[in-house]
Structures
1.
Amino acid sequence: MYSHDGHDIFVIDGHMHFWDANPENWKTRHGESWIKCFHAFHSGLSPADEVWAFDKFCRYGEEVLVNDLFRSGYVDMAILNSTYLYEFYKNGFNTHLQNSVIKAKHPDRFLLCGSFDPRDEEAGFDAFRRMMAEYPISGLKLYTAEWRGGSRGWRLNDPWASKYLALAQESGVKNIHVHKGPTVYPLSADAFDVRDVDYAATDFPDLNFIVEHVGLPRLDDFCWIATQESNVYAGLSVAMAFVHLRPKYFGEIIANLLFWLGPDKLLFGSDYAIWSPKWLIDKFMAFELPEDIKQEYHVDLTLDTKRKILGENAARLYGIDIPAQSAKLRSDAIAAKRAG
């Protein structure tokens, strides 16, 4: 468990990936364009000594991931998000099939997210049920701008999307992570518009919608929606990265979120391997809101709030008992190797 000034903090990385973007997996030129866009975000916002060579970034491997998250990166548990992109990658970019392999090796460290695509319509129901039955799915990650054939995206308030959300609810899944943030080339920005979350959150009050990347660059739209919808939460990946080069902008983002949503609805995410949790957490824990922002927004980023953001809020959504889970993790293989 991460310790800061004598305080133990349980860390859940709520948004990370284990992708395969090596050139052998590129299906079209967009496979190359996609990972180059990711690498541009990585190199443009990371500290200079944290920037990876492009080859490593394309396929970093299991050992690097485990080290960066759990041994050096302060993370206790992480949520494996699935992003399929079969139009761009032969075997998919980051699927639950790939992610389940590393989940099986470290079952107490990872939560696994599956997905659905409403464009499958009724024909996809059986495959969705099999995924839920055959894999330890804890949540879903939805990517509304993913290309498929002639379609360049879908919306959460599409009729078939509602049917899949109802099926997810029947299957016992409550946490729905939705990418609603910056576009990635060549996807279309309007397909990430956050306003369809409003419909889904109203129609499914027993589901939790974690809006990844807090809707950036549509932060105002997101805040207004998340204020009126009690089941909408803010996933901070991407937003976290601005703590390094644009701390004032980061402070304004966090202050807006604290003002509108409060401290109980914000979840840390590194967006690994775009960024690594160690430097994000180091800089986040050292960060204090400027006095003028505190005065304008009437909020503060206290240690208790940081503790909630880094792990307690996600633990509550996923039903994780932090003391019990911490005791379990102290005796697993990762902890043993770290101690050794």
2.
Amino acid sequence: MDLNPQTLLSVMLFVGLLTGGASCLAWLQDRKQTVPMWMALAMMLLVLGLVSRLLIPFLPGTILSPSLVLTSFGLIWTAGRRLRDLPPLPLVIFSPVIVWLALCCFPSFRDDQNLRVGLGLFLLLLPISLLGRELWLRAEASPVMRRALLTIIGLQIVYMFQGGVRALLFLPHGHEMPFQLLPGFARVMLDLIAIMVALSFGMMAIAKEQSERRYRDAARCDFLTGVGNRRDFEDNLHKHFRRAQESGAPLALIMVDADSFKAYNDLYGHRAGDQCLRFLARTLEQCCRQTDLVSRYGGEEFVVLLPNTDGDLALAIAERMRQGVYESRITHAGRPEGWLTISLGVATLRHQEREATPDALIDSADRALYRAKREGRNLVRSEIAQHRAEREREMQQTQETNGSALSEG
């Protein structure tokens, strides 16, 4: 590719301004997402580095241009770290630059063009390889975009490695010529610009997807406790209820209420009440399995959805929750026990009932919860046990009636 310096300079400035401007606009739209900002800075430094190599005299350009290019790739790696919410590491960002500046102190290095090209390419391998690692670890990213970026990075690593080996081992050393006259100089510069553009738009796409996912999660998350909110619970309840009816699998629900919570707020203040609710949410999650879903139902009430769980197991989990809160010994002077306690109501889906609906399951758990509160609180009660007791009473009454009829006969 034969491009004169003026044409190449114009192309680089145009592409750099276009890509950097797009990154800045993306950042201004969502300043909590800093990936576009880091990519804009990286593009700016890359263009400055390449332009300085064309415009600045030999020695200053030799020192400045690669330093800016190496820093720009360090910023790209930082953008990759920000995708995983990791902080920048300035020492790693600038370590290739420090090595480059140290090498420039040796005249034998400064005066050997191919030696500089070869070692410069090898120094670029560090940040671009680290960027590949960040994208590889970012498993939640769009699989298509992630694979595309990893493919680009892999090809670039191979290209830089073979270019470095060629410059160090197969090209003559100890000579110097104007940079514009080097064979393939335009291709190298355009390659750096092209990979920066591809990485910029690819990583901004991942960042946008990540922001949208966070907003969706925030809309389904209780801001105080961090567990699911009522909307999230109802969506999950209908989904698992439908699956349970289709497969005949068991489904259980636990309603949880903090005992005398208004008195707790009056005694210790609303800030302490908020901390208490966060503690309850953590404790309930710790008592659950990975498949169970804890949500805040409203106020001091929580609800736990237990897929593939029968009544006996649900009662055992509820009892574990009750004990976990009681044994934590959170002071509550408004309770007879002196500690914070919870009451729990358990219900299960009964497939044989025609009127079985998600709302009926909630009502059943709610009735069991209020039985626990009426009978003294700090208890686990279940509609299952109540139905069993009612059936046993009915059977006993039937047996007594049949026995009386036989005796009269």
3.
Amino acid sequence: MRKFLVLLVTVVTLGASSCHDGANQKLVIGSKFFTEQVVLAELLAQHVQACAGVPVDQKSNLGGTLLVQQAMLSGKLDLYVEYTGTALLAVLGDQATGDSKTVLERVREEYSRRFNFVVTEPLGFENTFAMVVRKEDAQIHHLATYSDIAPLAPQWRPGVGYEFLERPDGYKGWTQRYGLRFGKTPSVLDLGLLYRALVEKNVDIVAGNSTDGLIEYLGLVALEDNLHYFPPYDAVPIVRADALQRVPRLRGCLADLAGKVSASDMRHMNMEVDAQQRDVTTVVREFRATKNL
């Protein structure tokens, strides 16, 4: 009887230990509140679960940059995808100087020092802000660059997301750099409604993203940042250092994704979700198959 009790205690202890280890290894992946971020969170979740063999929870559409950053700091999230220029200006409050490599190294150094976060290798594409107009306006007024819209600005109403209106690399700095004096107050819209407002002529120019699939799908035109106002915005997974300690295979799994997602890949996935209304999980699964992930 005593041997049976000892064996029972051992089994229960081992079972509890196993459950505890499994809970410790669970990863929580988050995203901001627009389509591309939801797609990238799904990409991380599918790949990490398959590669590292650990359970994954997703917390998508959490909000803007600073809300996701706070969730990381509090330990509610373990990893998500950020953009280097956003990290540099909006989170670190640094200056927008340097090429992609310089900005990446600066962000990597400061995120480690200040937050104990590890900035891994870029996924392979940049998503910069894109000022987008209707094709007919671009043709009629011969618009190709941001500078070209200066004569039209007094008659135009811009449409922007709330974060672009408020952030240091956003609306105020952009209009000052290009000498743009819009005659109407910007319409602040949900990011998912920007292009609809442009097509329906409720606004005349919108601050979108360069990898938005709807730009090409709707026949819109993204203008060129000819004065190079915006810094590099390379997409890069950011992970808490303690998550890498809990799940040792995680570092290698994230390294698998380095350079695997091109700008055209990202535009295509965004278009599939936004324009074709396809399921995010399916779109990402198909993309992973094309990359042998």
4.
Amino acid sequence: MKNWIGRLLGGAEKETVVPAAVGAALTGEDSQAMATEVHATYYRWLTASSRCAASPEQEAQILDEVRSLAADPVCASGLVPRIPELISQLLTALSDENISTGALSAQVGRDLVLVAEVIREANSAYYRPVTPIETLEGAVTMLGLNGLRMLLARIAFRPLLRVTTQGVARKVAPVVWKHAERCAFAASVMAPGLSAGVFESYLAGLMHNLGLQVAFQVADRVCEGKVPGSGEFGIAFFAVSRELSAVIASHWDFPPDVVKAIAQAHEPEGSHPAQALALGDRIATLRLLLDAGVIGDDDPLVMQGLNGFERRCLGKLLELSD
């Protein structure tokens, strides 16, 4: 786990595109209140079929148990799967800036499932090829090194958010993963305008939900197949889950900027990578709520909570394939 992260970041291309001014349309307490409402709404929707009227003691027990896991990184990191070996080998190859398209294609071609993923990505609405791409080499050319790195990072992280146990954690897992993908993309788009690393922000977006899946297993056990239903609990639940994600990221030797971004994402004075992640998180959350019909395009959470550039990013998330 530790080695492939270092190789991946060491080979990342320099990003030179800087977007228009980035920043929430609201500032100060109003912005914080808007962000809180977004995440409370998301929690209530995410857990709609599994909520219960938990007692204050049960809520406190869940939060305390998640904090206890965050204090034991060895135990916490052992609760999630590991990265597939083939992905690690491919990321090693991608750290070589001079590697040829043919050599990359040969590496990817060792796994038919991965071949299908790469070709599918190259034909997605995000890349918009003039004609359909049917060959692996053509797909690798379309994605480029950085696009292939991001795709492989998504593939590497996907099994980390899969849940083998039954219950609430398993039920919400597909949505939690979809949110992580969209958060990673949005955070990477926000990063240049905040002087944050693009790929580090992308990794932080993928990683920040990892603790949430573990936390849902804890809540499921305490509440016997349910989770507390209040939005207020949801905000605290997300916060301790991010603490757990940051602890696991640190234990796996993620770069300090990534760990700090996850830990500080919703602090008013967070680092620049933390601000990029917080914006990416909010945009991704709004995208899911819009797609589910929970809110509309003219909702104040969108119109007042995001500026023009952020709303364009929100629209761009529609082009990401599931």
